[in-house]
Design brief:
This protein has 663 residues and is an alpha/beta fold. The chain is built from 22 helices and 27 strands.
Length: 663
């Protein structure tokens, strides 16, 4: 047996350092945590601990495949790499010649990838082809827009520093399922007397332990945050000196917030006003106080304004300047990486396709996309308006490449399937966004079968299409060196990574780190955001529910998967979770077969009665595969492809549905 060091790049804030054990044949035996990253402290989540099932599982793609049947049938024949790459290169060049480069759409997300497998050699190829650009707005787009405009994406409170907080507010996030290493930190903070508040429409594991749980209606975080801000101003519980020195836009913010009393917000959020008063008093009194803001808050029509209103609170209340005080956003990286030097090609002026509306783009007439290159992504299982995505993937005139490690639902529609390595089989350079750690992981095992890494495949395609140039950076070590050299990193961080260590970052806001806005100040009412929002920034848009579809469907992450990754490993059917009151109103009993439906589609499954949900809210997990339901559809079949108020973000939590028994 051989034990090697690695690091986890999965879409999680923790950034685990890993110890990987393989046998003499290079077969993965075990994945454990190690202590190089002190935050992750030597333990890993169950999905990473069981990674061998993913790496060596029956769904692993081990060789190139060419379609041998109709689209969607999933019938393929084995091909050599040369044949497959020639087919891809010839087809992409043909599409460009006949329809222009923008008829090629790279469809990728890359949340579970680092700087060597996302926006590196792949970006070089698509830029030189003149392909359409993709707005990766599936997650973090509204949050990113708000954080950038208010603070310039100033790094937030590092997760290890939560141990120092006297008040922790978990707002729309569930570390028990995604980011488990924060849980013991919170336990230590509570042992030292900290108060825990959870704002979530369901009673998560940490909500069950919390001192206060606000089960707000989905989409009403904006009124709650504005009411808290208005109350802080009205009661003169703000830090005037801080606001004078470090902010502007207060008057415009205050005018918007003044419409929201605690009483009005309590009514709209459907929570007791006394709970809002309790939260306000706790927030005023506690220092350090920190807000951990998750993705659940942004996934609706008001998502961007809600994040902006939440981010305004620590500035109003003077919560900065102490360790463990302020906020943490999942897209505020203290060690950001830039891949531009490694790409070696400026981004061309091309059209941009919003990822949330790929379905409508693929089905539009006349067709504007004639080649689809899917990698680092499983769009059939993750994009909204699933039926429209499905229709688009079925187009016989759409040349589709899927480059993945496993045979996903999306891969069933491919003309060419290329076998990709998993993160243990290639080099990766990754910065985490909670523990604020940067690691350079070398391949811990040889590729399974004929799998190849992203850089190798995109380099080969560039060569075949005549897109390679003298001076292009090609080798993994050279690519990593170019990324490090082109990134605004302290030399100490670069040296630590070059030596195989884990570079750490952190600091205290307004002591060690400051806003990265143009004037170095917090903008509480950015004009650009005000222009972008329908009705202006902080304008609340009411619930989209109807008499026909009154129930709010939420689709949170689950501990077994990272989005849709690892969904092939669990063959059990999914169940819709529903509050007892809503089930009784529909004469539904535990385990009953049901259809969940709206104007976009329907999902057939069983029902589970669960009083952890608030009435009026039902839940299906995100990232499910076709085998998880009785009719082959997932929650995304019910989710609209409408956009949030900022950043073109997704509105998954605006899905409104009805439920009825089958049979």
């Amino acid at each position: 047996m051989h034990t090697r060091e690695s690091a986890c790049p999965l879409d999680c804030p923790d950034g685990c350092s890993l110890s990987v054990t393989v046998d003499d044949d290079g077969r993965l035996l075990r994945v454990d945590g190690d202590a190089r990253n002190p935050f992750t402290a030597g333990f890993v989540c169950a999905k990473v601990r069981g990674l061998a099932k993913h790496v060596h599982g029956a769904e692993r793609v081990a060789q190139p495949l060419l379609r041998a049947g109709a689209k969607g049938e999933g019938r393929f024949r084995v091909a050599s790499w040369d044949e497959a790459l020639d087919r891809v290169a010839t087809s992409l060049l043909d599409v460009r010649a006949r329809h222009g480069g923008e008829a090629i759409l790279p469809l990728c997300y890359g949340g579970s990838n680092g700087a060597l497998t996302q926006d590196c050699v792949d970006a070089r190829m698509f830029r030189r082809l003149g392909a359409s650009a993709l707005a990766r707005t599936l997650c973090a787009a509204p949050s990113g827009s708000a954080a950038t405009a208010l603070y310039g994406k100033m790094p937030g409170v590092a997760l290890p520093d939560y141990e120092h907080a006297k008040l922790v507010i978990l707002w729309g996030c569930n570390p028990s399922a995604s980011g488990i290493h924060l849980v013991p930190v919170l336990q230590r903070a509570r042992e030292r007397g900290a108060t825990l508040v959870v704002i979530d429409p369901r009673r998560t594991p940490l909500a069950k332990q919390a001192d206060l749980h606000l089960a707000v209606r989905p989409g009403t975080d904006l009124p709650l945050a504005l009411a808290l801000g208005h109350a802080l101003l009205q009661r003169d519980a703000v830090d005037h000196a801080f606001l004078q020195r470090w902010t502007h836009g207060l008057d415009r913010y205050a005018a918007r917030a003044s419409a929201w009393s605690l009483a009005r917000a309590a009514s709209v959020c459907d929570v007791p006003q006394s709970d809002l008063e309790s939260l306000l008093q706790r927030y005023i009194a506690a220092s350090p106080a920190v807000i951990r803001c998750g993705w659940g808050t942004e996934r609706n029509r008001n998502g961007g304004s809600a994040i902006a209103a939440i981010l305004a609170l620590p500035a109003l209340a003077g919560k900065f300047g102490v360790r463990g005080g302020g906020y943490t956003m999942s897209n505020s990286r203290a060690l950001p990486l830039s891949t531009e030097a490694a790409i070696g090609e400026a981004a061309p002026a091309v059209r941009t396709v919003n990822m949330n509306q790929v379905g409508r783009v693929l089905t539009a007439a006349p067709a504007s996309v004639h080649a689809l290159f899917v990698y680092n992504c499983n769009p059939w299982a993750t994009l909204p308006h699933q039926s429209e995505v499905h229709r688009g993937l079925l187009r016989e005139d759409l040349f589709t490449v899927v480059f993945d490690a496993v045979m996903t639902d999306t891969a069933r529609f491919a003309d060419v399937v290329l076998p990709a390595t998993t993160f243990l089989e290639h080099d990766e350079l990754r910065t985490s966004y909670g523990a604020m750690a940067l690691q350079h992981a070398r391949a811990a095992m040889p590729p399974v079968g004929q799998a190849r890494c992203n850089a190798e495949v995109f380099l080969a395609l560039c060569d075949r299409m005549g897109l390679s140039r003298a001076g292009d950076v090609r080798e993994p070590e050279a690519l990593a060196a170019a990324v490090l050299a082109g990134s605004a990193l302290p030399e100490s961080a670069r040296a630590t990574v070059r030596e195989g260590g884990v570079a750490q970052a952190g600091g205290v806001a307004f002591v060690d780190v400051f806003p990265a806005t143009a004037d170095g100040r917090i903008d509480l009412h950015p004009e650009a955001l005000d222009r972008e929002c329908d009705g202006g920034l902080y304008e609340y848009r009411d619930d989209p529910g109807t008499v026909a579809h009154p129930l709010c469907l939420i689709t949170p992450a689950i501990a077994k998967q990272t989005s849709s990754s690892f969904g092939q490993l669990d063959r059990r059917k999914v169940a819709l979770r529903m509050h007892p009151h809503d089930a009784a109103a529909r004469a539904l009993v535990e385990g009953a077969p049901i259809r969940v439906f709206n104007q976009l589609g329907e999902v057939h499954c069983r029902v589970t009665i669960d009083d952890a949900l608030r009435p009026g809210v039902v839940m299906l997990p995100k990232g499910m595969w076709s085998h998880h339901s009785d009719n082959g559809a997932t929650a995304n079949a019910l989710c609209p492809d409408t956009l949030a108020d900022l950043g073109g973000g997704a509105t998954f939590n605006d899905a409104r549905v009805q439920v009825e028994a089958i049979g």
